[in-house]
Amino acid sequence: MAKETGFCSILPINNDYLKRIWTYRAIDSRFYHTAPTPDQINGMNVTTRDRPIDNIRKVSFVGLGGQTVELDYPNLYGTPVYAQSGAILTLQDPAAIAQNIKTYLQSYVDDYNQTLQQQLAARGTYYNSNPGAFNLLAQHNQYATPNRTYNLIPNTIFIDALGEDTIQEIANLLYYHNLPRQEKIAEPTIDGDMQQHYDNIDINQKIAHVM
């Protein structure tokens, strides 16, 4: 809720004047993206995900509960392509990866809906903070008040938008991208995973097979 503001009006009545002072509260529905500020840029570590360009893309808006809502974009590279048994990771076939993509996308929408449901639960408190203003706004635009409801997002929305053929094509790409390493040891760090990759292609590690 923005700070109070107002204006003054002077009305002529029977050779006299009536002075009226009107005050109101502005309700700002916009969300301002001000990051990164110069101070934030100076404190960033260029080798980590501090920079906005390295962060997950998202949609931001003010929800019905008056709080800022952030919905991250799905990242299909986060789809599991390996099956784990103990410490061993084994590359799955394209059909299994396609199913993993669907499960991943559905879980993303489920997270969206959990956030949106929380906003629905909080809308009454936000509406009661200034019901007169919200009622006035609703006369001009029914979506300008939190005193309403909405349907949650169908959890197949991304799957339906992509279609079966596109999902299978993405699964094929992920499969072929990881095909050179069909089996590997699960590593807790990126350095360990990269070292495995270097050892896998290093001819000195395979000398017994070529001699």
Task: Characterise this structure.
Strand 1 (4-13) and strand 2 form a beta hairpin. The protein has helices at 38-42, 94-128, 131-140, 157-162, 164-178, 190-201, 207-210; strands at residues 4-13, 16-25, 58-62, 68-72, 82-85, 88-91, 183-185. With 211 residues, the protein is of the alpha+beta class.
Order of helices and strands: EEHEEEEHHHHEHH
Oligomer: single chain
Q: Provide the structure class.
A: alpha+beta
Radius of gyration: 28 Å
Strand order, biggest sheet? 5-6-7
Amount of helix: 40-55%
Q: Helix segment count?
A: 7
Head-to-tail CA distance between termini: 76 Å
The average pLDDT is 80
Summarize the biggest pleated sheet.
Answer: 3 strands, antiparallel
For the record, the count of structural domains works out to: 1
How is the topology of this model organized?
Elements: E1 4-13, E2 16-25, H1 38-42, E3 58-62, E4 68-72, E5 82-85, E6 88-91, H2 94-128, H3 131-140, H4 157-162, H5 164-178, E7 183-185, H6 190-201, H7 207-210
Antiparallel strand pairs: 1-2, 3-4, 5-6, 6-7
Helix pairs in contact: 2-5
Task: Summarize the entry for a quick read.
With 211 residues, this protein is of the alpha+beta class. It is 41% helix and 19% strand.
